[in-house]
Amino acid sequence: MEGTALEKNIAVLNEKFEGEILHSAMLYDFPTITLKKDKIIEIIKYLKDHTDTKYHYLTTLCGIHYPELNQIAIMYQLHNMMSGERVRLKIYLPAENPQVPTLTSVHASANWMERETFDFFGVIFTGHPNLKRILNVEDMIVFPLRKEIPLEDQVRVDKNDTMFGR
């Protein structure tokens, strides 16, 4: 298959999932494709098995909070270790109830990445074999990487802001 990495990935996706692509671009020499969320697991499995892509390695799975959109993005980075090709896939979920099926049936390595994303962003990965906090304490009631959480305690009285140039 000829063309750029982005064009190739779009062509492969359109073979079976035409209409699922919302946006695509080359960002920092990295093909990035934003997709509708409903078929993300099928799409990743398809890209893993397709002879032109063979993305057998899940490099990254993480959350990104966009408070101005009231959404949480899930970003998946896939890698074909033989050819060195990579692709970044993104889906968007509503921040008030972020849910997406687990990827663990396709990539076992998604297990801990999904737990971390749950722990820090509150994303529920339905069907996950052991979705519980992985780094934070179990009784924590917030998701600390959401941008609505202040970076410091706003009511502290033991600090002097003038010492920090404020």
Map the helices and strands:
Blueprint lengths: L4 H13 L3 E7 L2 E6 L4 H10 L7 E10 L4 E9 L6 E9 L4 E3 L8 H12 L2 E3 L40
Parallel strand pairs: 2-5, 6-7
Antiparallel strand pairs: 1-2, 3-4, 4-5
Describe what you observe in this structure.
The chain has 166 residues and is an alpha/beta fold. It has a single domain, classed as 2-Layer Sandwich (Beta Polymerase, domain 2). Helix content is 21%, strand content 28%. The chain is built from three helices and seven strands, in the order αββαββββαβ. The strands form two sheets. Strands 1-2-5-4-3 form a five-stranded mixed beta sheet, with helices on one face. Strands 6-7 form a two-stranded parallel ribbon. The longest helix is centred in the first third of the chain and has 13 residues. The mean pLDDT is 92.
Count of extended strands: 7
Number of helices: 3
| CATH second-level architecture | 2-Layer Sandwich
Strands across the major sheet, in which order? 1-2-5-4-3
Unreliable residue stretches: none
Q: Look at the structure and give the mean pLDDT.
A: 92
Shape summary? elongated
How much of the polypeptide forms β-strand, as a percent range? 25-35%
SSE ordering: HEEHEEEEHE
Organism: Chryseolinea lacunae
InterPro entries: NADH_DH_suC (IPR010218), NADH_quin_OxRdtase_su_C/D-like (IPR037232), NADH_UbQ_OxRdtase_30kDa_su (IPR001268), NADH_UbQ_OxRdtase_CS (IPR020396)
Domain NADH:ubiquinone oxidoreductase 30kDa subunit: 33-154
Subcellular location: Cell membrane
